Amino acid sequence: MKPLAVTLGDPSGIGPEIVAKAWSRRKSDQIMPFFAIGSAASIQAVSSIPVVAITDPNEVISIFDQALPVWDIPSKETIIPGKPNKAGAEVAFAALEKGVALVKQGQASALVTAPVSKAELYQVGFTFPGQTEFVANRCGIAADDAVMMLAGPDLRTVPLTIHIPYRDVLEQLTPELIISRARVTVEDLKRNFAIPSPRLVVAGLNPHAGENGTIGREEIDSIEPAIRQLQAENIDIKGPFAADTLFSPRARATYDVALCPTHDQALIPIKTINFDNGVNTTLGLPIIRTSPDHGTAFPLAGKNKADEGAMVAALVMAANSAHNRQAYAQNSIDG
Ligand SMILES: NC(=O)C1=CN([C@@H]2O[C@H](COP(=O)(O)OP(=O)(O)OC[C@H]3O[C@@H](n4cnc5c(N)ncnc54)[C@H](O)[C@@H]3O)[C@@H](O)[C@H]2O)C=CC1
Ligand SMILES: NCC(=O)COP(=O)(O)O
């Protein structure tokens, strides 16, 4: 398989440090060969690991054992850990563009993205809510058909609405949105995660899942019709369940993924239970894309305090997903 392409994210954030630390764990964690895309100087500012500049992903395999291969995108200004600037955001943007292109061209097996700062990217012409929608756009997929899934060893969740204000959730949470996100989720739990018959649950939006319409009608008007339609398609989906009890160990044992009406309903449990090995992956794409579940953590950058566990988990998941997808495609051909 081709190596993984790993964007360094915002060069002033913890991305360069966690990528360097992940490379140091390549043998102990049996991490598939990868190359970084971004500012080589941003790695050297926070780590003493050897880096080697590459211009062709085919060079990676021979270098990876001894040094971290880097597709260098130099910054116009000095990069200072913890102090983001426009030049760094431009590098992050260019790295993301290059990473998607290389994976789409088949020069890398999957894309792993370190965290970016959305606020910084907005200053350099980035117009997407996040990397999820950017990668979808570059792959020719509509934003609504690209599904964010957070996955850790103990839980998988899908936020049905993502980076929008709460006041917009009620309008966006339509039966159509729930149905399309659920279908994509089912398909990619099969293709990327080798789960043949995924079990889905849906969390309610309102307290007590609306208590029969007495504390809000979104469950009756949007979620239940969507579930009925999906069940008619033989999808194993249940709910809506009160969100407050859906993440207990007993409840988690009953499903493979929980679909949650809001961003925080989906991300709080993952970041509480699996912060240091939680992965954000995008479903519904022609390529595999994973990312650690956390952000740029600017105040931590340059202090050698960032935990690389989620980056290691994102690398491992990217490799496994690429492998599973290949096997799934092969099985479909073989009949
Ligand atoms: N995948 C991505 O590109 C993501 C980007 N972000 C961006 O990150 C920026 C900061 O967002 P925040 O909400 O502050 O989230 P954050 O994840 O950067 O930080 C939240 C808390 O977790 C800690 N933390 C994060 N990663 C850590 C690690 N690897 N090891 C140890 N501690 C860690 C931080 O020090 C902080 O206390 C924002 O601009 C946001 O847009 C946020 C989430 C994901
Ligand atoms: N809260 C998740 C997050 O911000 C990551 O978004 P994305 O950049 O992966 O779309």
UniProtKB/TrEMBL annotation:
Its cofactor is Zn(2+); Mg(2+); Co(2+). Pathway: Cofactor biosynthesis; pyridoxine 5'-phosphate biosynthesis; pyridoxine 5'-phosphate from D-erythrose 4-phosphate: step 4/5. Binds 1 divalent metal cation per subunit. Can use ions such as Zn(2+), Mg(2+) or Co(2+). GO terms for cellular component: cytoplasm. Keywords: Cobalt, Cytoplasm, Magnesium, Metal-binding, NAD, NADP, Oxidoreductase, Pyridoxine biosynthesis, Zinc. Signal peptide: none annotated. InterPro entries: PdxA, PdxA_fam. Its main location: cytoplasm. A divalent metal cation binds at residues 163, 208, 263. PANTHER family: 4-HYDROXYTHREONINE-4-PHOSPHATE DEHYDROGENASE, D-THREONATE 4-PHOSPHATE DEHYDROGENASE. Homodimer. Belongs to the PdxA family. The active site is located at the dimer interface. This is 4-hydroxythreonine-4-phosphate dehydrogenase. It comes from Zymomonas mobilis subsp. mobilis (strain ATCC 10988 / DSM 424 / LMG 404 / NCIMB 8938 / NRRL B-806 / ZM1). The gene is pdxA.
